[in-house]
From TrEMBL:
The entry's keywords: NADP, Oxidoreductase
Designated name of the protein: Short-chain dehydrogenase
GO molecular function, one term: oxidoreductase activity
Record Gene3D superfamilies: NAD(P)-binding Rossmann-like Domain
PANTHER family xrefs: DEHYDROGENASE_REDUCTASE SDR FAMILY PROTEIN 7-LIKE (PTHR43391:SF14), RETINOL DEHYDROGENASE-RELATED (PTHR43391)
Length: 262
């Protein structure tokens, strides 16, 4: 059996780091990429001291050329397999839409959306060459309904949802499945100091390990009789996504208005 491989962006911290450790424990060759070289060195130490194998490299997901280079380097180590690409790198800037400088709106779109487009595009030949390859995209419960004070962040996750659904259909002929993870707020550096209507009303209940465990589970073969694309993480996200599917639009808006204290 060849060693399975996973390529993870934003792996130096938070959910990405936890995902790298989870897959390493399961025997995967882990490709861990980030703009934070110090965080990557710490992850490398944690994986190798536990007997795992990891390839690390600096990758800014907004740079298509870096994507090409890092994927090629990883492929050389991975023996031509890319079983799982995890598009995890992301940023969140909270605040009133009109008060946030345009540069911060643009930066969220560049990393959270363009980063996924560039990476998934560059990874296609490697995914296609690997039977049963998967792409895992970090979506968010902020994309169930637009969130005040997180308007652009939530919009980037609506985009990730769209890319996920489309490519999961488009790439089925290549035996590539594409899945979206939907956590609500997670206790990482991303949410440290963030105070919005919904972080205050719903709290920050999930850990990075909760999300990485769900990512790992989502990538396992399943006996379910239907094809699953969306994976809510945690009870709150499950309840909100179910609720929004079955309630009329006016009620969904009203629930979100109350939760966000607007
Ligand atoms: N924390 C949450 O509440 C939450 C909830 C739902 C979804 N998510 C999503 O999960 C993913 C990971 O979030 P997290 O909470 O672990 O965040 P985090 O801030 O803890 O970690 C993000 C990592 O991404 C890296 N990164 C930032 N810009 C990058 C770039 N241009 N290129 C490469 N790497 C870059 C950072 O250096 C950092 O290591 C994000 O896509 C986020 O939107 C997070």
């Amino acid at each position: 059996m060849p060693t399975p491989t996973v390529f993870i962006t934003g792996a130096a911290a938070g959910i990405g780091r936890s995902t790298a450790l989870e897959f390493s424990r399961a025997g995967y060759l882990v490709g861990a990429y980030d703009i934070d070289a110090t965080g990557l060195a710490s992850l490398q130490e944690a994986i190798t001291s536990a007997g795992g194998r990891v390839v690390t490299g600096v990758l800014d997901v907004t740079d298509p050329e870096q994507w090409e280079k890092r994927l090629k380097e990883f492929d050389a180590e991975a023996g031509g397999r890319l079983d799982i690409l995890v598009n995890n790198a992301g940023i969140l800037v909270a605040g009133r839409f009109e008060e946030m400088p345009l540069e911060l709106h643009k930066r969220q779109i560049d990393i959270n959306v363009n980063g996924v487009v560039y990476g998934t595009h560059a990874a296609f030949p490697y995914l296609k060459a690997t039977p049963g390859a998967q792409v895992i995209n970090l979506c968010s419960a902020s994309a169930i309904y637009g969130q005040p004070e997180l308007a652009t962040y939530g919009a980037t996750k609506f985009a990730v949802r769209g890319i996920t659904e489309a490519l999961d259909l488009e790439w089925a002929e290549y035996d590539i499945s594409v899945k979206a993870m939907w956590p609500l707020f997670v206790n990482t550096a991303m949410t440290a100091g963030v105070s919005t209507g919904t972080t205050n009303s719903l709290g920050i209940k999930l850990s990075a390990d909760d999300v990485s465990a769900s990512i790992f589970k989502a990538t396992r073969p399943s006996k379910r009789p239907y094809h699953k694309v969306h994976f809510p993480v945690g009870l709150q996200s499950k309840a909100l996504s179910l609720g929004s599917r079955f309630s009329p639009a006016w009620l969904t808006r009203e629930v979100n208005r109350r939760l966000s204290h607007t």
